[in-house]
């Protein structure tokens, strides 16, 4: 596939250079342009248009087949993930159908009505019926997608308090994440950037006097119990970040000076996802590539073999080390989560 793309790029570069040479020749002062298109030229251009149409279809299919990460659609790890995937699939099908039809019409008519000596173009002034059809169809399709998207979004964002969701804060700063659990009372203590005290290791600016903060737990690795609804409260210390958890189909901006929110219920543990055939194949491909760079990787001090983990990423270009801003997420059973939580230190005890 890489070789094919390389050949295509080389062809495009050659065509571009050829066109630039022609433009340069035409721009010479004192020369006469004798390059008037005749029927043969128009015929060639007509066939080239049809050839380019075939090229568009072929390259689109190849991109879907070799590059498109469609298997990701089967790896949703949250309750609402399948709804988001359905919306994406429907949108892609609509785009593909529209692109196929419109590109065919564009290139076919360019071929059919190419310039020919003695042939006069037919001027079609107006047709209210056609204009109504090609206006109302996009309106109906787009309205359907928007309404479906709004219902999906409302289902995601309207948290059912009867389910007693766990409350966790995600705190973003250049270039790392922190997670703060709300503890036994399931209420986060108050926090403000003005209360940040590096000397006392209060890096999140949590109010030390707030009773609700006394059982909060601050960690650098996010653990979630499977099947437990979770509400994430998100803050940013410095610039605009975006909390992105791809396998949970979750993303929300972290805005300085305000608290944003997103909720989901994890449905697949980390261990179960590692057994997913698509994930197994992906991990194998990555490790095969890493074996080819074994010496370089070992020299850099990184682990040679890759193992799948859910990740919290920053999906905004937030600075020079944006690429490295990520946090490991572990989805586990309730028993494993409770055992891990017992090992953690509460906020007051973590201060210097």
From TrEMBL:
The keyword Transport applies. Binds a copper A center. Coiled coil: none annotated. It comes from the Bacteria. Its EC number is 7.1.1.9. Residues 64-160 form the Cytochrome oxidase subunit II transmembrane region profile domain. GO terms for cellular component: plasma membrane. GO terms for biological process: ATP synthesis coupled electron transport. It is found in: Cell membrane; Membrane. InterPro entries: CcO_II, CcO_II-like_C, Cupredoxin, Cyt_c_oxidase_su2_TM_dom, Cyt_c_oxidase_su2_TM_sf. Its cofactor is Cu cation. It catalyses: 4 Fe(II)-[cytochrome c] + O2 + 8 H(+)(in) = 4 Fe(III)-[cytochrome c] + 2 H2O + 4 H(+)(out). Subunits I and II form the functional core of the enzyme complex. Electrons originating in cytochrome c are transferred via heme a and Cu(A) to the binuclear center formed by heme a3 and Cu(B). Belongs to the cytochrome c oxidase subunit 2 family. This is Cytochrome c oxidase subunit 2.
């Amino acid at each position: 596939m890489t070789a094919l793309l390389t050949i295509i790029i080389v062809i495009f570069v050659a065509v571009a250079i050829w066109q630039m040479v022609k433009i340069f020749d035409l721009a010479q002062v004192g020369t006469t342009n004798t390059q008037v298109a005749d029927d043969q030229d128009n015929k060639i251009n007509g066939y080239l248009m049809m050839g380019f149409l075939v090229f568009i279809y072929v390259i689109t299919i190849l991109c879907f087949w070799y590059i498109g990460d469609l298997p990701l659609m089967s790896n949703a790890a949250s309750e609402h993930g399948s709804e988001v995937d359905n919306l994406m699939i429907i949108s892609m099908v609509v785009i593909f159908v529209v692109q196929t039809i419109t590109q065919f019409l564009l290139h076919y008519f360019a071929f059919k009505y190419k310039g020919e000596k003695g042939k006069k173009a037919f001027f079609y002034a107006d047709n209210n019926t056609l204009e109504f059809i090609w206006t109302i169809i996009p309106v109906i399709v787009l309205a359907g997608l928007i309404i479906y998207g709004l219902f999906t979004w409302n289902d995601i964002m309207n948290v059912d308090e009867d389910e007693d969701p766990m409350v966790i804060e995600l705190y973003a700063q250049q270039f790392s994440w922190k997670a703060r659990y709300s503890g036994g009372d399931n209420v986060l203590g108050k926090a403000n950037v003005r209360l940040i005290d590096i000397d006392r290791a209060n890096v999140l600016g949590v109010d030390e006097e707030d009773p609700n903060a006394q059982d909060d737990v601050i960690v650098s690795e996010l653990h979630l119990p499977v099947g437990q609804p979770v509400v994430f409260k998100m803050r940013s210390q410095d610039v605009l970040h975006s909390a992105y958890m791809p396998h949970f189909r979750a993303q929300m901006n972290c805005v300085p000076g305000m608290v944003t929110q997103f909720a989901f219920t994890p449905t697949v543990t980390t261990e179960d996802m590692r057994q997913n055939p698509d994930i197994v194949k992906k991990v194998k491909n990555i490790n095969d590539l890493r074996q080819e760079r074994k010496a370089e990787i070992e020299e850099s001090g990184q682990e040679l073999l890759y193992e799948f983990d859910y990740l919290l990423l920053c999906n905004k270009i937030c600075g020079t080390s944006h690429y490295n801003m990520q946090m490991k997420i572990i989805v586990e059973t309730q028993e494993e989560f409770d055992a891990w939580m017992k090992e953690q230190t509460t906020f007051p005890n973590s201060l210097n």
